[in-house]
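EI: anyone free to look at a 395-residue chain?
SC: sure, send it
EI:
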Amino acid sequence: MPIRRRVLRRPRLKAVPLVAVCLTTLSPAVAGAATPPRPDTGPALQRQLEDLTRRPGGPPGVIAVLKDGRHTRVVKAGVADLETGRAPRVHDHMRIASAAKAFSGAVALSLVRLGDLSLDDTLGERLPHLPDAWSAVTLRQLLHHTSGLPDYSESPEFVETLLADPRHRFDSRRLLDFIADRPLDFPPGSRFRYSNSDNIAVALMAEAATGVRYERLLKELVYRPLGLRHTSLPQGYRMPRPYLHGYDVSPPEPPEDVSELIGMSGVWASGGIVSTPADMTRFIRGYAGGKLYGHEVARQQRDWIEGASEPAGPGRNKAGLALFRYSTRCGVVLGHTGNTPGYTQLIAATPDGRKSLTFSTTTQINQTLKPDLLRTLRAVQENFVCALLKGKGRS
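SC: here you go
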């Protein structure tokens, strides 16, 4: 049955380029020399997180959740709030950045299973008001980041608007208007390139197919089935309490709280979701395991091509449909990463969804800002994956 019948003090903003989901600070990034941590488990996992928080430019807080069946281990270091000094907790809210792209994938693939959408549906069929030059792009190509759509978040007009007012209220359903005068960057399906425009278009296709707003589709198709009680897609800049405070850490300047720096209307389905480590653990187990859309759709989702998430996840990266394959020295996990001012995320699980890792830091770490620190972060994440897959992440 089609889903439509079933669902009822202002922070300062530095001059920045747009990377991944939204603004990436341009302040000088000072990262420590990247000496990969030794692949250890047990107490060594704790030490590696503590080392991350002590590195120049490192996050004030880190929390990782390793889950194997009914066994859960939480490893954390540093603080959730520099003012109070309290430790991070699994029910603290946080911005999940581009990990939100997995949620738009979950909605779209669920609708494919229900028959409301097909992976071969085109923008021309579902969204005929968009430029004719884009009409041949398919849902499959959007989810694969092979669409060729220009990235709206790199549009000079979008950047200028956001720099003038970081909390500007965009019309989330008109974000593609910023690039409506541009042709595709390359023929659809010919190459991989990560673009925030792709997941905006995915959400719009889901709305067009069902007549239901994307936020409601998230609740009906993702939050409710997986029991996500602390996950939402806000439009504004406020964070739900309690939350992990996100910081711009750019020595020698003191850390600056950027948790509520920008509004989420300008990222929407591409990166605007707020969640918790506990909810993200539930999500990635269900998503990577195909619980929401079944084995046949999951088989099509796992059509791997060369491509990496942003920032790159642990090990060798390959791209599927709103999902990435991380091949580590200890085995394979499937998931997504994300980064935005104040936060860097990794969510990953084994292909059956039984074992999972949620890894959250409270500063932005990517190849542009802090390449050395990103190298260290990926090495630590790989060690956590190894602990998970070898069964040493249990409490």
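EI: The chain has a mean pLDDT of 91.
SC: 👍
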